[in-house]
Amino acid sequence: MPHSSLEQNLRDTIAFAIKHDGSKKSMMVFDEQSLLSRMIAEGYRAALPDMVALNFDATAPLDIRAALDALSPGDLVVLVQTSSFRLNEFRFRLELFNRGLAVIEHPHLGRMPEEEHDTYIESLAYDPQYYQTVGRTLKAKIDAAKQIIVSCDGTELVYDGPFESAKLNIGDYTGMKNTGGQFPIGEVFTEPVDFSRVNGTIKLFAYADAAFHVIVPPEPVLVVIENGIIVDAPDAPESFTKVLDQIRADEQLWVRELGFGMNRAMTRHRRLTDIGSYERMCGIHLSIGQKHTIYTKEGFPKRSSKYHVDVFAAITTVMIDGEVVYKDGGYCV
Hints:
Helix content is about 25%, strand content about 30%. By secondary structure, the chain is α+β, with helices and mostly antiparallel strands. The strands form 2 sheets. Strands 5, 6, 7, 9, 10, 11, 12, 13, 14, 15, 16, 17, 18 and 19 form a 14-stranded antiparallel beta sheet that branches. It has a 5-stranded parallel beta sheet with strand order 2-1-3-4-8, sandwiched between helices.
């Protein structure tokens, strides 16, 4: 993909999602440890030529802190990271949000091999009409839903509502406490109010491993769910059994998040290795384990819950209250 596409995608995100018009300061903290981090940093330099750019590996921590201290609420900070920056106890994104700064974060770029770079760059394209129209329509349907059925070839997973108020990750931060977050974007997610009302079977074509990499087995894995808990995964490959065993050693195999990924640059067959980026792929992802920091549930303590493992369904259709909202690889709302 030519450099101009990357630059245009970043310009659109800066202007339309973050609404940064140049009247505020901008700053980038980046590294050069990977080809993709160098490409993304170069794209931001072109999109924001007046920004302060600090190489994390060549700048003293105190100097980075001083540069951040010089910023004011509403200014923009871009983080371009081969892995994830650490400054002692300074938790970058949380600290920046606490200061009222807008944040665009690109973490774990080193997990993407070179053949995935075009996909990552394309995933940064910002289409406000698509994201806001489809995203808000999905949220309205989910929030009012009595039942959601996720179908794969020969399987059906039935969610009986009600559902928690769906959250939007569509690049519109109007009225939100924080502006920005991790990119790429594109997701509407929820979970059942009562997990025990999730029953049926589903086929998973991919899942995260302990290193937060996307694992794709030769064939989709059949999973049986009863009362919100995985009770069987017949014929599962060792890589998936290992994931289940690790979770089961500490907590039950709850199925919590129901995520409607919207990013059309990523599909079942056009993937990114980094789970945090691929989570936005156009399709359905679920989480296994009792951890979900967004929704508070009695009996599911945020501090001691350990696992939130993303898994991806090989869906054919998704229905909300009998209406097909997803088929043929895309949304039809």
